[in-house]
Amino acid sequence: FFKQKTAYEIYQCDWSSDVCSSDLLDTSLLLSAIEVGTHYYWDIAGISLHGEVFIISWLVIFLILGAAFLATSSLEQIPKGWQNFMESVLEFTTDIARNQLGESFYRPWVPFVSTLFLFIFGCNWAGALIPWKVLSLPEGELAAPTNDINTTVALALLVSLTYFYAGISKKGLGYFGRYLQPTPILLPINILEDFTKPLSLSFRLFGNTLADELTISVITLLVPLFIPLPIMGLGIFASSVQALIFSTLAAAYIAEAVE
Q1: Quick check: 156 and 202 in contact, CB under 8 A?
Q2: How far is the C-alpha of 143 from the C-alpha of 53, rounded, in Å?
Q3: Using a CB cutoff of 8 Å and minimum separation of 24, what contacts does 231-240 make?
Q4: Cα separations (Å) of 135 from 35, 132, 140, 142, 224?
Q5: CA–CA separation, 40 vs 211, rounded Å?
Q6: Closest by alpha carbon to 71, among 94, 92, 93, 90?
Q7: Do 245 and 204 touch, CB atoms closer than 8 A?
Q8: Would you say 11 and 23 are in contact if contact means Cβ atoms under 8 Å apart?
Q9: How far from the centroid of its chain's Cα atoms is residue 53's Cα?
Q10: Per residue in 220-253, is it b (16+ CB within 10 Å) or e — as a string?
Q11: Which of 197, 193, 179 shows the shortest CA–CA distance to 249?
Q12: Labelling 190: which of 16, 86, 149, 252 has CA 20 to 30 A away?
C-alpha cells in the first residue's frame, strides 16, 4: 500500500516487514498536485485582476471601437462598404430594442442593447475563431471572456441595475409597487424574480460558452482535424444565438420595468 509522507513524496510500504522504500514518484501522478481552473492574474495595488479576461475583453472593445470609427470617419449619404455594413449591424440591434420596447420607448435604449450584443458577440467569436492556445501564458490560457463566470455575472448584474434604473426613472418610487401586483400574496415571488433574472442570464451564457469550448477541445484531441469542423461551425452559430438571446432578454426586462 502507499503511504503519503509529504505532498510530493510517496513511499511504498511492505505489510510484512513494515519497511518503506523512499521511491520518489513524479508529481504529475499526484492528484493533489493537479490544479483545476488555473488562471493568469495581474496583481495591481494588492488587487488580483483576471488577466486572461482583461486581455481578450480589451481586444474585443478595441475592435468594436475601431469598426465604429472606420464606419463614421467619412460618412456618405448613400452608404457603401464598411459604412453600409455597420449601418446594417446597427439596424439589426435597433430592431431588437424596438421589438421589445415598442416604438415609444426604444430609442434611448438602443446604445445599451447594441453594446451588449456586440460585446458578447465579439467575445464569443473571439473564443471560437482565434486559436488562442498557440499563445502561451505563465499560467492558464487565453479564451473567450464569456466562458468565465465573473464576466457573465457582471453583465447580468449590469442588466439588473439598468432595468431598475429604467423603472425608477419613469415611475419614481412607485416602481416598487409592482412587487404587490397583482396581489400582495405574491410579494416573495416577485422579489425572488429579481434574483433569478441575473442568475439565469449569467449561467445560460457561461454554460453554453464553456460547454462549446470543452466539446471542441475534447473532439479535437480524439479525432482528426477535419472531423471537428462541423461542431466548430455549430459552436459559432450557437455563440451568435447566445448574444442575441442575452440582448433580447435585457431589452425585455427593461420593457417590463417601464411598461
Answers
A1: yes
A2: 8
A3: 232/128, 235/128, 236/125, 236/128, 236/129, 238/208, 238/212, 239/121, 239/124, 239/125, 239/127, 239/128, 239/144, 239/208, 239/209, 239/212, 240/121, 240/124, 240/125
A4: 20, 6, 11, 8, 22
A5: 21
A6: 90
A7: yes
A8: yes
A9: 10
A10: beeeeeeebeebbeebbeebbebbbebbbbbbeb
A11: 197
A12: 149
- Mention every residue, 6+ apart, whose C-beta is less than 8 A from residue 185: none
Tell me the whole-structure pTM to 2 decimals.
0.76
Tens place of pLDDT for every residue, the chain, 259 residues? 334 444 444 444 444 545 454 444 444 444 344 444 566 677 777 777 777 788 888 999 999 999 899 888 888 888 788 888 999 999 999 999 999 888 888 888 999 999 999 999 998 888 777 666 656 666 666 778 888 888 899 999 999 999 899 888 888 887 787 777 777 787 888 788 888 888 888 899 888 888 887 777 777 777 766 776 777 777 788 888 999 999 999 999 999 888 8
What 3-state DSSP class applies to 49? strand
State the maximum Cα–Cα separation within the chain, in Å, rounded to a whole number.
Answer: 92
C-alpha cell recorded at residue 32: 493533489
C-alpha cell at 46: 494588492
- The cell for 231 is 461542431
Q: Which three cell numbers stand for residue 156?
A: 447580468
**Count of CA atoms in the C-beta half-sphere (13 A) of 250:** 32
